[in-house]
Amino acid sequence: MANKPKSKNWNDVQMVIAAVAIALSLGFWNMFSAPAKQDLANQVDPVTAPPPTETPEPSPTPQVVPTLLPHVKIYLGGAAPQVQQVSAPAKRAKKAKSGGGGSSGTVTTTKTS
Amino acid sequence: MLHRLAFHAMGSQMLAVIEQASDPAPPVLHEVPKWFEQWEQVLSRFRPESELSRLNARSGQPVHVSQILWDVFKAALVTEAATTGLVTPTVLDAVVQAGYDRSFDTLPRGQFQPASQMLVEVNPLSEVTWDEDSRTIYLPVGVHLDLGGVAKGWAAHQAMRRLKAHGPALVDAGGDIAISGPRLDGEPWSVGVAEPFNPSEEFVVLHLGANGVATSGKDRRRWTQGAELRHHLIDPRTGQSAETDVLTATVVAPTVIEAEAAAKVAFLLGSQEGLAWLKADPTLAGLLVLDDGQVVSSQTIQQYLS
What we know:
The complex is a heterodimer of chains A (113) and B (306). Chain A has one helix and two strands; from the N terminus they run αββ. Chain A has one helix spanning 7-48; strands at 93-94, 108-110. Chain A starts with 6 loop residues before the first helix and ends with a strand. In chain B, 26% of the residues lie in helices and 28% in strands. Chain B contains seven helices and 17 strands. The longest helix of chain B has 16 residues, at 67-82. At the A-B interface, strand 1 and strand 2 of A face strand 1, strand 2, strand 6, strand 8 and strand 9 of B.
């Protein structure tokens, strides 16, 4: 007399069902989790993206304002020979008036003629 | 004792000084203004009746000139040669073109009538011919002379030479100064250098013996022509007021004629080249005030500072 199919077959069916269930679970998991990741990315992008940049304006050239520097020791650069700064007297002398002596004791003054 | 006489001549304030051991002042001192008047009558380009004006009016024909005009003309020849043409009396037409056509004495500063902007070519003095024996000068047509700078230095030198027979002498012709030698006590004369930014003060004192000293600059005798600032120092290379970084140039030289010419050259060439030019002649000492207030000098100026 032939034996009834063994419960082993049922076990096989269970294994198949379990495998299909796992596969479906993983499939659904991936299906639903991807949009979530994309949503997350969409939410994060504005935060992590670098701030909008503008073309930088060239920095303005510093304005050099001529400064009056009388009596400051400055040597000319370059190849000028024997250039030296004259030491100004500690106290400026008052200009002598023509026909009379100045307080500095000078007899007269040379100036642009 | 210093005897001084101040007077006005040649569009400038003059000062004659002579040193003697006692009073009164020697009579020769009072002759000095008469000498200057005589020289100005010959050498002024602002006086239509002067001998120089008559010479300029007769360009294109030979003109016999006086000994005074001849001497100054010869001094101008020497000066032009020594300055390689930078200081020449043939700049007259360029000076007039720039607007300087009358004495500064006759008008308030800056009221010159604008002349045209046309450039004037400056002819070299070599185009002028002359004859030593007959004391004749021939100006080519279109060439006219301005002996102003040379004439003032020459006059100061002549007056100093005449005075020094009576004692140590100094003659200041509007800033061009001739000195005969040390004072009676053997000490040098103290001469101030006016500060161009504040002309009422001196910023350096020079101690001078048998020297001449002069200052050239654009701090005085300047005016506007349209939007352009003009001054009386014409660069013969361009025919226009010189563009330079030098505000004033003061030079000490063996004579005031040389000092006046050298100061003009240092001004025209600018600080770098001007100082190099001064260095080539050890008898010259220069002190330059630049537009930005810097003061630079040749090494040789040191001997006159202390």
